[in-house]
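Quick one, tokens below. Sequence please?
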């Protein structure tokens, strides 16, 4: 009887360990690699087009199954004052419009995966919905991107058009209103996770 209990206990322990191991193999959490990630914001003004680049990003991408492109979680945070245009005056106007002293980050958080379409060789077309928070205003947005996954690395690449006023951000002006910024923005990203 005692021998049978030990056998059963041993078998249950083995099955539990096997189950945990399978879950660990399947679920994979990757961290955003800032030095290998690019996020640029493109806009217009009454005198010229402009763009800014995010110099400091963090985040994570969690897969329930990386081989099949099954995303469980995605979050990205951009330091507001890491947005740089190469022109200090423009950067100051951007930080003022985004109220960067109060809202130190721009964030995106996945809420739903709509679809994942395999294209072969670890490439997937992905459609998701998530919460984008800019200057303290959170909006649900749809986002499409290409996912390339291999081994312990994944890259997502895409673009999204938004309006500043969607997020209660007043488009910045300069020279007493002589220069005005357009409301429309295009965000382009190529983000690497390892």
């Amino acid at each position: 009887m005692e021998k049978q209990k030990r056998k059963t206990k041993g078998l249950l322990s083995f099955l539990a360990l096997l189950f945990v191991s399978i879950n660990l193999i399947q679920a994979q959490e990757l961290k955003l690699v800032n030095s290998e990630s690019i996020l640029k914001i493109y806009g217009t003004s009454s005198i010229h087009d402009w763009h800014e680049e995010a110099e400091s990003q963090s985040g994570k991408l969690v897969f329930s199954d990386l081989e099949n492109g099954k995303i469980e979680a995605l979050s990205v945070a951009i330091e507001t004052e890491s947005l740089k245009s190469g022109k200090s005056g423009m950067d100051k106007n951007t930080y003022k419009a985004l109220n960067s002293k109060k809202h130190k980050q721009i964030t995106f958080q996945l809420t739903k995966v709509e679809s994942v379409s395999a294209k072969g060789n670890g490439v997937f077309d992905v459609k998701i919905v998530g919460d984008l928070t800019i200057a303290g205003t959170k909006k649900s947005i749809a986002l499409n991107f290409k996912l390339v996954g291999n081994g312990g690395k994944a890259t997502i690449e895409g673009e999204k058009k938004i309006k500043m006023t969607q997020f209660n951000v007043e488009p910045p002006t300069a020279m007493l209103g002589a220069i005005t910024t357009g409301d429309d923005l295009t965000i382009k990203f190529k983000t690497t996770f390892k």
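Residues 15-25 have pLDDT under 50 and may be disordered. Residues 27-193 form a domain with the Lipocalin fold (CATH 2.40.128.110).
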